TrEMBL record:
It comes from the Bacteria. PANTHER family: AMINO ACID ABC TRANSPORTER PERMEASE, GLUTAMATE_ASPARTATE IMPORT SOLUTE-BINDING PROTEIN. SUPFAM superfamilies: Periplasmic binding protein-like II (SSF53850). The keyword Heme does not apply. Coiled coil: none annotated. This is Amino acid ABC transporter substrate-binding protein. Residues 1-21 form the signal peptide. InterPro entries: Bact_solute-bind_prot3, Solute-binding_3/MltF_N. Residues 54-287 form the Solute-binding protein family 3/N-terminal domain. CDD domains: PBP2_GltI_DEBP (cd13688).
Amino acid sequence: MHKLLALAAIVILAANVPAKAEDMIGQDLTAAPKQDYFPLELSGTLLKANQTGAIIIGYRDASFPFSFKRPEQAEPQGYAIEFCKGVVDEISRELHDKPVRIDYRLVTSDTRIAAVTSGEVDLECGSTTANREREKQVSFSPVTYVAGTKLLVKRGSGIRSYKDLQGKTLVVTAGTTNEAALRQLNDKYHLGMTIASAPDHQQSYDMLAAGKADAFATDDVLLYGFIARNHAQKTLAVVGDFITYDAYGIMFRKDDPLMAEAVKRAFATMAEQGRLVRTYRRWFLQPTPTGENLNLPISLQLTEAWRALGIDAF
């Protein structure tokens, strides 16, 4: 009798415990299914995308390998552009898989922040440093890259650091954090540099190449990109210690909570899919889609930033 009661209790208990599907096909169906996120009421950029069917991406034409466009290309491409496409994918998912096309609009260092705040562009996909001063006006995605200011000079110039620029001409790109940093150094150490500013990175590079400037200061990765694109390894060199460190991010409008959540989910999804790491390899460790070899291993700073997203990069 006791054995029968015990057996009945086991049968009742088993009936009340859901069977795990892993017993049959190796998966546990008892776990709650992953739910897609659909906002109950649209606002901000997501509302605009739903109404227009488009997201406007602000791109740079000379920020290789982050965001650039060559004359023969129909659309811009680059490392930052790929991340922005991941954000657009997430926006489409949150609009119940409604197709969202991408429209591109050219911006410069000087115009990019105003383009975002005015609504001219929805995402700015370039080589933009995320800092506290800019966060007063715009919002940023998680970190996409960590760079630092260095100098590009002609080989044989004798310039090894900013201290060697006394009485010489330095070119910077207008509206960049590099411009602000070098002007501060010039004032602080009374270097007597002549600091010229150009509208965008290509014009800055052209001034150096034409001998109108003795050095070009910007983020090291952009300088290596110019050397690679112009096959200038024998004539140009990146020199000096880092003058600043700059963490890049994708810009979007401030005070847009639905967009902020969409950007956050987009990066979490790209991290989970391995897309962040694949994109890094594609642009920095393998020949780029346009044939250049940068061979820049991921930095400790970016590795730590991505680890915060749950990625053990590389």
